[in-house]
Amino acid sequence: PKTLAKWYEVRQHCPTIIRYANMRDIEVDLVAAVMMQESGGWSGAESVAGAQGAMQVMPFHSCSSWDPVENIDCGTKILAEHVHQDGVEAGLAAYNAGTRGRDELGNGWDFAEAVLAIYGKIQEASQ
Fold this sequence. Notes:
The protein is mostly helical. The protein is built from six helices and no strands. The relative contact order is 0.13.
């Protein structure tokens, strides 16, 4: 039930996810999986580290915003840059921990694994 509630939150953002995922040539389901893992789709989410909104964008990013549409725009931009540069798994790890944090500290890999598991479930449900 808790997962279904979160999925409902993510689904409300589908038009925005589709818009920015297509604009940045990144899979819609991957963006949805990141959002599911990051915030459960809750636009008001804030992490202990200060990450904001549904995509959990850090405030030091120039595009960071609490506005749900701007937050998804920014998050998909950052995610697409990492995925296009490093591939899906490494790109997800970098989205979570930054390129340096992923490489030097080993952070982000658990996040990538969790997102890929959610992505797989989305793909299964779509068939």
